[in-house]
Amino acid sequence: MGPWVGGDMAVGRGVGVAVVLALIGVMGAASCSESSEVDAPEPGDVGGPGAGDAGETASDAGKMEADAGEMEEDAAVLDDGGGPEDVPLTDVPEDEPPQEPEPGCVFVERFEQEDAPGWPSVWREAGGVARADVVGGQGRLIPEKRRDPYSLARVFAPGCGPVSGEVSARVLFTEAATQGVGLYLRSSGGWLTHTAPPGSGYGFFLEGFRNRRVGLWREINGVEQEVLVPVGEPLPSGVALRARFRVEQIDARTTLLRGRVWPEGSPEPEAWDVEVTDATPSLQGQAGVFGIDAYSTRFPEDAQEPADVFIDDIEVMSLD
C-alpha cells in the first residue's frame, strides 16, 4: 500500500485544499442569499442579520480544515507503511478450525531450528501426546501410556490436506519391536473417539510392534481399521527409514491407497509395498488435514516408558 498511497499524496492534498476552499465559498454564498430572506433585526440585536449563520459557517469551515489536516496525517501514516494496528496476516487463533487447502499445496517440515520443547507452531496436538519436541534437528513424538484403547499420540498440521495427495517422511525407531508410526491423509484432526469430531481418514503405518513391515488403515468415527496389512520383514531399530504414502480419488466412490518404505540412502523403489482400493463412503472426496501418529505397546502398568521415535523431512503435496 505504501508506494500506491505515496504516488497519489500530492494530488490528494491539492484536491483536499480545493474542496475545502470551494465548500467555504459555497457556504458563504448560501449565507448571503439567505440574509435577504430573514427578518430585519430588532433593536438591541447584536451583529445584524445573518451574523449567527456566518459564525456557524466559519466554525464549519474550521472543522473541515481540521478534518482535511487529519486526512493528510492519516495518509502520511499509511505512506510510511503503518496503520492503526500492525497485525501480521498470519496470526490465527489457536482454536480456529483448519482451512480448506489450496490446489497444488505443498507443506514441508525439516525441523531446522535448535532444540525446543515443542514442535513448530504450525503443529497442533490432537491427543495422547506425552512429549513432542525438537531434538537434533528432528521431531520427537512420544505417546502417553493409556488403555483407552491404546497408547497413541497424534499431531496434525492444518493448511495442506488434499483430497488426492501424498506424504513422505524420514522415520527412526529406537525400539521398533514396541513402536509404530502412522502417516495420515484426509484426517479430521480428531483423536480416536476422544474428540469431537472423532478421528477419521486414511493412514499408512510402519508397524514394528507386530513384526509387520507396513499396513494401510482407515479410521471411521474414531475407530482404526485394517484395510491391508500383509506380513513382511520386521522393521529395524536405529536405522533411518524413508516412507511414502499416496492417496488418490480415482472416481466418486473409490480411493486408491499406496505406500512404500525403504532404508535411507538407498534408491527409492518404483514398486509399492502395499496397494489397495477403498470405497468407504464417509472418506470419499474429503480433504481433511495431514497428521502423524506414534504408537507404543507400553501401558500404564508397565515400568518402562514408551521409547523415542524421530520424524523428519516431512513433505506433503497435493495431486488434485
Oligomer: single chain
**Total count of domains:** 2
Largest sheet: 8 strands, antiparallel
And the CATH topology of the largest domain?
A: Jelly Rolls
Q: Specify the CATH class of the largest domain.
A: Mainly Beta
Can you describe what's shown?
The protein is an alpha+beta fold and 320 residues long. It has 2 domains: 2-79; 106-318, Jelly Rolls. The protein contains 3 helices and 15 strands. The protein has helices at 2-7, 9-35, 51-79; strands at residues 106-109, 124-127, 129-135, 138-143, 151-157, 165-173, 179-187, 201-207, 214-220, 223-228, 241-251, 254-263, 274-278, 289-296, 309-318. The strands form 2 sheets. Strands 1, 3, 4, 6, 11, 12, 13 and 15 form an 8-stranded antiparallel β-sheet that branches. Strands 2-5-14-7-8-9-10 form a 7-stranded antiparallel β-sheet, with no helix packed on it. The chain is globular and about 50 Å long.
